């Protein structure tokens, strides 16, 4: 059974966790393929919120094997603390697997991250200061320590001593900080942290391929989003890995033939955390209303997110970069109180119109959004149970987004709860699909034909 990839189409915080949680009901394996604990998502179950950082969303389903893939950078202390928090609330984490090839975030990574951001001052990148970038930098420089190194204390200490000599020089000479102790770090990582993590360490590539070959449904879950991608995002205001769908292939160790469905997640508006260009950013009462109604504060950092109107130029590019098969639009209910809505359909700069983001950053930083205005609906959508419950203005807005972005809308969020959704259609591709939607039928749901799924 080919896999499904979920990817954010904006700057993150689109609601990927909730969508992953929804689709996980049909999955046997859920793989987190990149990022670290700088990315958080919140899932609401029976009115109870679960804020996850490293642990894949599939942990909440007892039949799912959650996997932290080789493309993730792991702070073992954070992972153990997250597991403890989940288990204290009755969540069984014994099924969790961690790739032996995943890289470790070390104490010097987070220390250097904080010091570098401080030194950059007004030119800071807005990182979460949790060591993600420095850990990926060491991975690329081939001096990183991996999860599997925890299984060989001798190798772990040898690698640590080599890399710490350089890190301590940087800490002392550039940042005027005291050196870190290799013995202290080794004692921490090879002590209780190793004891706790060792039973989870696995050959994640073999595990995922075994599942695929057995016909299991496998979901690949990314962190961050398309425009935080190291290669394709608004560089340098990006993350240090590849959240795009192609990153799932590297970060989980599968080939493109294993991916059949790529779902892009977008909020019905847009937000961004940290610095960087933002063509549709709002600084008025509308922006404040989006933040207040959408509770737009970081899951991990608590930082206020920057709000703006939906940007179809960005999502149009995300469709290209990820080969999206469908779009999930979340938080539609946040727009309930607006009389008029705006959607950016193009950019303008120096007399030229852009339907996709200009490649040159100097142009992107000065573009002006070209808006289309649509009527709001001024109705509470959170109780919607079928597509017919949505007002015509809301359905027209969704159709406009679909047409503007060039991809079908498959999912629409109308509230934060796990069960705040209605299945109107299934946009997944059946194994027997002959491109004739007229004959499609799902015995479990009774759904026939294409359309919109409301969540």
Can I get a quick summary?
The protein is an alpha/beta fold and 455 residues long. The protein is built from twelve helices and 20 strands.
Strand numbers in spatial order across the main sheet: 9-7-5-2-10-1-11-15-19-20
Biggest beta sheet attributes = 10 strands, parallel
Please give the radius of gyration in angstroms: 22 Å
Q: In total, how many beta strands?
A: 20
Gap between N and C termini: 25 Å
**Mass-distribution shape:** globular
* Average pLDDT taken over every residue: 88
Which regions contain 5 or more consecutive residues with pLDDT less than 50? 430-451
Describe this structure in words.
- This protein starts with a strand and ends with a strand.
- Mean pLDDT is 88; it is low at 430-451.
- Strand 3 and strand 4 form a beta hairpin.
- It contains twelve helices and 20 strands.
- The chain is of the alpha/beta class and 455 residues long.
- It is globular and about 65 Å long.
- A ten-stranded parallel beta sheet has the order 9-7-5-2-10-1-11-15-19-20, sandwiched between helices. Strands 14, 16, 17 and 18 form a four-stranded mixed beta sheet that branches.
Structural descriptors:
455 residues; alpha/beta; 12 helices; 20 strands
Write the layout of secondary structure elements.
Blueprint: E1 3-8, H1 16-24, E2 29-32, E3 41-45, E4 48-52, E5 65-68, E6 73-74, H2 76-88, E7 97-99, E8 103-104, H3 107-120, H4 132-141, H5 153-173, H6 182-197, E9 201-202, H7 204-213, E10 218-221, H8 245-252, E11 259-267, E12 270-272, H9 285-294, E13 306-308, E14 310-311, H10 312-322, E15 326-330, E16 340-349, E17 352-354, H11 361-364, E18 368-375, H12 392-405, E19 409-412, E20 453-454
Parallel strand pairs: 1-10, 1-11, 2-5, 2-10, 5-7, 6-8, 7-9, 11-15, 14-16, 15-19, 19-20
Antiparallel strand pairs: 3-4, 12-13, 16-17, 16-18
Helix pairs in contact: 3-4, 5-6
């Amino acid at each position: 059974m080919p896999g499904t990839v979920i990817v954010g189409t904006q700057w993150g915080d689109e609601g990927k966790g909730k969508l992953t949680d929804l689709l996980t009901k049909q999955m046997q394996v859920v793989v987190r393929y990149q990022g670290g604990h700088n990315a958080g998502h919140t899932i609401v179950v029976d009115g109870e919120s679960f804020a996850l950082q490293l642990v894949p969303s599939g942990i909440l389903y007892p039949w799912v094997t959650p996997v932290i893939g080789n493309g993730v950078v792991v702070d073992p202390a954070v992972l153990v603390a997250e597991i403890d928090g989940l288990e204290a609330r009755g969540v069984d984490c014994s099924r969790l697997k961690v790739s032996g090839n995943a890289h470790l975030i070390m104490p010097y990574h987070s220390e250097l991250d904080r010091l570098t951001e401080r030194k950059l001052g007004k030119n800071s990148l807005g990182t979460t200061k949790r060591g993600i970038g420095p850990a990926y930098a060491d991975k690329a420089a081939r001096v990183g320590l991996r999860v599997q190194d925890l299984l060989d204390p001798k190798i772990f200490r040898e690698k640590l001593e080599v890399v710490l000599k350089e890190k301590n020089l940087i800490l002392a000479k550039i940042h005027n900080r005291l050196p870190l102790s290799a013995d202290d770090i080794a004692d921490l990582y090879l002590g209780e942290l190793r004891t706790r993590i060792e039973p989870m360490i696995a050959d994640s590539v073999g595990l995922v391929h075994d599942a695929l070959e057995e016909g299991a449904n496998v979901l690949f879950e990314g962190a961050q989003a398309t425009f935080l991608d190291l290669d394709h995002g608004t560089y340098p205001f990006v993350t240090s890995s590849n959240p795009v769908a192609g990153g799932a292939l590297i970060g989980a160790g599968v080939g493109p033939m294993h991916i059949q469905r790529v779902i892009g997640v977008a909020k019905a508006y847009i937000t961004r955390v940290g610095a960087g260009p933002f063509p549709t950013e709002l600084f008025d009462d509308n922006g404040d209303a989006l933040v207040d109604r959408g509770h737009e504060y970081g899951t991990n950092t608590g930082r206020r997110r920057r709000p703006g109107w939906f940007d179809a130029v960005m999502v149009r590019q995300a469709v290209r970069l990820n080969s999206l098969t469908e779009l999930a639009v979340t938080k539609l209910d946040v727009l309930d109180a607006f009389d008029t809505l705006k959607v950016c359909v193009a950019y303008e700069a120096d007399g030229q119109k852009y339907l996709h983001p200009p490649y040159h950053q100097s142009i992107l930083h000065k573009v002006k959004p070209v808006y289309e205005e649509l009527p709001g609906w001024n109705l509470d959508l959170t109780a919607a149970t079928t597509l017919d419950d949505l007002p015509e203005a809301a359905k027209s807005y969704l159709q406009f987004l679909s047409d503007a972005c060039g991809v079908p809308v498959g999912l629409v969020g109308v509230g934060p709860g796990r069960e705040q959704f209605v299945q109107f259609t299934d946009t997944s591709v059946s194994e027997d699909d002959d491109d004739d939607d007229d004959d499609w039928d799902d015995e479990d749901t009774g759904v026939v034909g294409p359309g919109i799924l409301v969540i």
